[in-house]
């Protein structure tokens, strides 16, 4: 069991803040993850004066500053494993002390834990899709429950029923406040802790008094008390009914239908039970449940994973409109660069256990990062040359001064040495102006200026693919001629007269909406499913590397069945002696699985991104001439997607890529260097092919629609523009 321990610097204000807020400002944030910890250990992890109790476990964030402004859409960046999802979960469960318990937070989180936030347990499996979405707003559900409870008390002939009802509601509220007071007292110490413990005693006394009132015999209640309690029940019922009228169920249902249609559901699917849906459609239902709530803070962890490109474009437009019409703060994690760029106004970077902020979208951040790296790099080089010159001058002055007893030379050497020690470093202030000691670093005596730190690229491990095995004679790798496919004789045509020829070095991208038949086409092309009509021809020496949508799940299942299985052991077994241990280690290292990760960490404990790398290693160890990749980016962060794009760009075999990721298709298939997103220097695209005409490849993007494979003359942009027009019509409707 994983336990999250969170701490922060405490304030004497808002000990029990009842005001909901879409803003968060938490300083000194620390988050530690432990594999298992008793409940009493959690209470020990709190701030005491200036020292912080150390908790055993992995520290993800140390002395960070979590700052979210109301109504702003943030993109959270960080490599796989840095703690992004853990931070989001800590926020959603309000484990971070500085987040008000009254703040409404809704989270979509990629998790396999059914009882976790964002897990399937929060879906009403027994309800229909529409009913489940409408019932997702817990604040509204609580208001409905209390209103129904009070209404029923007034429907009886017993005049004491409303009194009992209001007293029970008071007791439930007192229970909740006692829980919060306990939590608050455990997180505070010193004078603030003393004040928190006073509030705890008050909450305990309040619970005791409300409990006594609930248990009071009806005959012993005064008439005046009955009248007062009854009046309070009437006023509360009126307030609740007023709140529910403002929520307007009819408008909510209209909005829920609009969201579900945008996410790909049909009208016929609204009445289906949630329990009958696949995992991908359940996550869409969960996303709809989050969007309908309009919470103070909305957390979306990889919301595009189960959406086709139409759903992604719709969600982009929906969140952009939400930015204009709502004060909801959004925190978004996504591997889709174009999606982050379109939705987010500010970027939060989780790196080296700290949170850094940039005002602007992802493209602006990357451009600023490169400019800062170049500017500071040149500044540091120039200063290092200046220091080297000054140190040579100091040595010369010392030598001459000691030899001739020249005090001026010695003083000059001492003065220059002081300048080297104290005056070198960053020459500009945080605001961009000239550095001034008495303004910019007040109180710093040992080092007057901050050192020049040149930013380093945050790209994680690089990836490289082995070269394809040479063919002994030329010819197409695979050829589809007049392919038609139906699952059953009377079913609709899934593939209709498909013709496709792929040669060595070709780049073929296949796009389309969910259910259009892309995976069926891949299975026919790969020889897994025979066509109803037509011919599939392959080169006699062809070796295919196939990455399917469920490759990661297959590895997880195998790892669960063999607890001791490692990546190294798996590949050694599958290569059946064709590769030596050193070669397997080298291959895994080229995929980003180095050292002990490959040989010591069980497959069952590898992260999603690491499993993608292992799945890739499984299909490329035999050096295939054709790679067929079906939705390979699902478990990757955007840094790894960039590394993957670079590795695929230089692969000398053929690639057939099925993906909704516009960036990956644009770079790998079309060979374009994005103007908004920087690629690695090793990326090989159209520019390199133009320099060496002999290396030019066939590059084609197809869209599968109504069984037909249509080539897009303008590539991804053409398909995207057609979807944008369709989404705009949907939003207007």
Automatic annotation (TrEMBL):
<dbReference type="InterPro" id="IPR017871">
    <property type="entry name" value="ABC_transporter-like_CS"/>
</dbReference>
<dbReference type="GO" id="GO:0005524">
    <property type="term" value="F:ATP binding"/>
</dbReference>
<protein>
    <recommendedName>
        <fullName>ABC transporter domain-containing protein</fullName>
    </recommendedName>
</protein>
<keyword id="KW-0547">Nucleotide-binding</keyword>
<keyword id="KW-0175">Coiled coil</keyword>
<dbReference type="InterPro" id="IPR003593">
    <property type="entry name" value="AAA+_ATPase"/>
</dbReference>
<dbReference type="Pfam" id="PF12848">
    <property type="entry name" value="ABC_tran_Xtn"/>
</dbReference>
<keyword id="KW-0677">Repeat</keyword>
<feature type="coiled-coil region">
    <location>
        <begin position="230"/>
        <end position="257"/>
    </location>
</feature>
<dbReference type="Pfam" id="PF00005">
    <property type="entry name" value="ABC_tran"/>
</dbReference>
<dbReference type="InterPro" id="IPR032781">
    <property type="entry name" value="ABC_tran_Xtn"/>
</dbReference>
<dbReference type="InterPro" id="IPR003439">
    <property type="entry name" value="ABC_transporter-like_ATP-bd"/>
</dbReference>
<dbReference type="GO" id="GO:0016887">
    <property type="term" value="F:ATP hydrolysis activity"/>
</dbReference>
<keyword id="KW-0067">ATP-binding</keyword>
<dbReference type="InterPro" id="IPR027417">
    <property type="entry name" value="P-loop_NTPase"/>
</dbReference>
<dbReference type="GO" id="GO:0016020">
    <property type="term" value="C:membrane"/>
</dbReference>
<feature type="domain" description="ABC transporter">
    <location>
        <begin position="45"/>
        <end position="377"/>
    </location>
</feature>
<feature type="domain" description="ABC transporter">
    <location>
        <begin position="478"/>
        <end position="731"/>
    </location>
</feature>
<dbReference type="InterPro" id="IPR050611">
    <property type="entry name" value="ABCF"/>
</dbReference>
